[in-house]
Amino acid sequence: MQIIRHDPGKVLSGAVEANGFVFVAGQVADDLAQDIAGQTKQVLARIDALLSKAGIDKSKILWANVWVSDIRNREAMNAAWMAWADPKNLPARATVEAKLADPRMLVEIACVAAK
Amino acid sequence: MQIIRHDPGKVLSGAVEANGFVFVAGQVADDLAQDIAGQTKQVLARIDALLSKAGIDKSKILWANVWVSDIRNREAMNAAWMAWADPKNLPARATVEAKLADPRMLVEIACVAAK
Amino acid sequence: MQIIRHDPGKVLSGAVEANGFVFVAGQVADDLAQDIAGQTKQVLARIDALLSKAGIDKSKILWANVWVSDIRNREAMNAAWMAWADPKNLPARATVEAKLADPRMLVEIACVAAK
């Protein structure tokens, strides 16, 4: 059994592979001045990049956890999600409200994918 | 490696199977007029139904994440959970408070099971 | 496929093994009079103990979900986390704010490890 850790930082790794799965850390937008649509798009691009490092793509996502800082932003987040998601390969998902690390952060998404 | 997606909708799938695991999306009650006991019972029935589509049952649940809209409802949620759970096969679980998609939603549960 | 359940209680198991993974239930501190640093340390010690029952250690953690009752405690939680974590084997992680079961609980952590 081999564990591969991508983008290790001081506190956490960006993604970790083991036993046929890839666990992606909670991603937030780089540009926190953007609205929920823009931040969601950035978060999803970051997930794409991490999955790519593990040699897979979004069609392999099994599960996602979405946190929005204001649940009223859920529909706008969903619109950006649907513009990105592979409609033939939609993951199971849970979306709840939570305050995030920075008050300007509107959305954070973590996921698990198959490899 | 085969990925099987149950109950795909426009945004997410109800449950996704891969590599010996089943990931069940966050489930909420159908009848949001019910109290926490009634909503929890409905949520757990929906989980039963999704696990059944994957050919397994609640005895195979490994992990659950429970979100209650008011943490003071935790005991009443637990009572409904214990009435349903297989006492010989209790999953690991985390329960925290979170605002859910609709203000009438009192509980949401997601889980991971073995297949 | 064998499922092994550690520390089963009335509501949940402390950790569950299956298919090469160990799922650890959300852990909270025993001494709720402690501050965020002390509570985080206790939570991490409890995770160490549960992983040990499954025959592994923190170097095998793939994913962690951290809930802090006040997101402003995130840096102090991170300091305790970094003092504990294996810097060569950092998990993917998501940290969000959530009210926990008892108002004195400042942090709860759940994780998934490889076995």
Jot down its keywords.
115 residues, six-stranded mixed sheet, 35% strand, 60s Ribosomal Protein L30, Chain: A
Task: List the topology elements.
The structure is a homotrimer of 115-residue chains.
Chain A: E1 4-8, E2 13-18, E3 21-27, H1 36-53, E4 61-68, H2 74-84, E5 92-97, E6 107-114
Parallel strand pairs in A: 4-5
Antiparallel strand pairs in A: 1-2, 2-3, 3-6, 4-6
Largest interface, with Cβ-Cβ < 8 Å? Answer: A-B, 28 and 28 residues
The CATH homologous superfamily name of chain A equals RutC-like
CATH class of chain A, please? Answer: Alpha Beta
Q: Strand order across the biggest sheet of chain A?
A: 1-2-3-6-4-5
Through-space gap between termini of chain A: 14 Å
Describe this structure in words.
The structure is a homotrimer of 115-residue chains. Chain A has 115 residues and is of the alpha+beta class. Chain A has helices at 36-53, 74-84; strands spanning 4-8, 13-18, 21-27, 61-68, 92-97, 107-114. The first copy, chain A, has one domain (4-114): 60s Ribosomal Protein L30, Chain: A. Chain A has two helices and six strands; from the N terminus they run E-E-E-H-E-H-E-E. Chain A has a six-stranded mixed beta sheet with strand order 1-2-3-6-4-5, with helices on one face. In chain A, helix 1 (36-53) crosses helix 2 (74-84). The two termini of chain A are 14 Å apart. The mean pLDDT of chain A is 98. Chains in contact: A-B, A-C, B-C. Chains A and B meet through strand 4, helix 2 and strand 5 of A and strand 2, strand 3 and strand 6 of B.
